[in-house]
Write a sequence for this structure.
């Protein structure tokens, strides 16, 4: 199914943050399978020479894409460090000449007592889940404006309250939900502002996904009861690829859910 998109993405350059594992890994591989050149970032690259590169590293993601129509370039970037994001965008333009797609996926979902969140926890998650996306857009948008086109996809969540019927309120997820709700507003605001330049800005919720990180954090009972989808390009990729192909002439300013792709949207 991914190869159906290869012609459309063969000359595209994409950036995916938080791409070493889970949802981000699936998105990076989906774009590479569709023919794109993908700059995949995470805090560290891992051992580039090991043929058995450890799962959960960018080195492993690069190896996983070796026989795909596109390819993956690994760049280390801590998205909580503004200079790292600036460097990521600048190096992508310098090495690839353009940026067509930006997927702001990096983030975390720690659990806190709703009435006991201290300032350091609050500031840290805002920096990771929200401000990093803004800085990446701020740095990438001028290149997209010069090209008069591009697609930005911010990865949101049901905890943002955007999707009725998805049980968006979860115990301990107040701060996480606030960051994702703010990310949704960042999406709709910038969709309007960047539309005259041909740039689409949308937010995509992957829904409940069985990632390695989720399973390591969840209790055995929750893992056993979980009915979420696996974090694979085949499952998560189609909705992301649809949004990645958009410009302002198509779908923009939308907050959408992967589980409803092909039913309620596009």
């Amino acid at each position: 199914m991914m190869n159906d998109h290869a012609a459309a993405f063969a000359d595209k350059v994409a950036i995916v943050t938080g791409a070493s594992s889970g949802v981000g890994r699936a998105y990076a591989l989906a774009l590479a399978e569709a023919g794109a050149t993908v700059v995949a970032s995470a805090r560290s690259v891992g051992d580039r020479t090991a043929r058995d590169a450890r799962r959960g590293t960018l080195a492993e993601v690069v190896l996983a894409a070796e026989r795909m129509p596109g390819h993956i370039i690994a760049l280390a970037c801590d998205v909580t460090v503004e200079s790292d994001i600036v460097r990521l965008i600048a190096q992508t333009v310098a090495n690839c000449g353009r940026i067509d797609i930006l997927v702001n996926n990096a983030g975390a979902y720690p659990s806190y007592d709703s009435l006991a969140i201290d300032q350091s926890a609050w500031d840290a998650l805002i920096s990771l889940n929200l401000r990093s996306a803004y800085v990446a857009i701020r740095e990438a948008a001028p290149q997209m404006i010069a090209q008069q086109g591009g697609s930005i996809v911010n990865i949101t969540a049901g905890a943002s309250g955007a999707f009725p019927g998805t049980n968006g309120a979860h115990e301990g997820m107040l701060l996480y939900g606030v960051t994702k709700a703010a990310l949704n507003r960042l999406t709709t605001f910038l969709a309007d502002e960047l539309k005259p330049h041909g740039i689409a800005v949308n937010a995509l919720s992957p829904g409940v996904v069985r990632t390695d990180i989720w399973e390591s954090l969840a209790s055995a009972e929750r893992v056993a009861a979980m009915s979420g989808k696996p974090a694979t390009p085949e499952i998560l990729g189609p909705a992301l690829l649809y949004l990645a192909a958009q410009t302002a002439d198509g779908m923009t300013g939308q907050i959408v859910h992967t589980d409803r792709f092909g039913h309620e949207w596009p």
Summary: The first strand starts at residue 13 and ends at 16. The beta strands are 13-16, 37-42, 71-76, 101-104, 150-155, 199-205, 209-210, 229-230, 255-257.
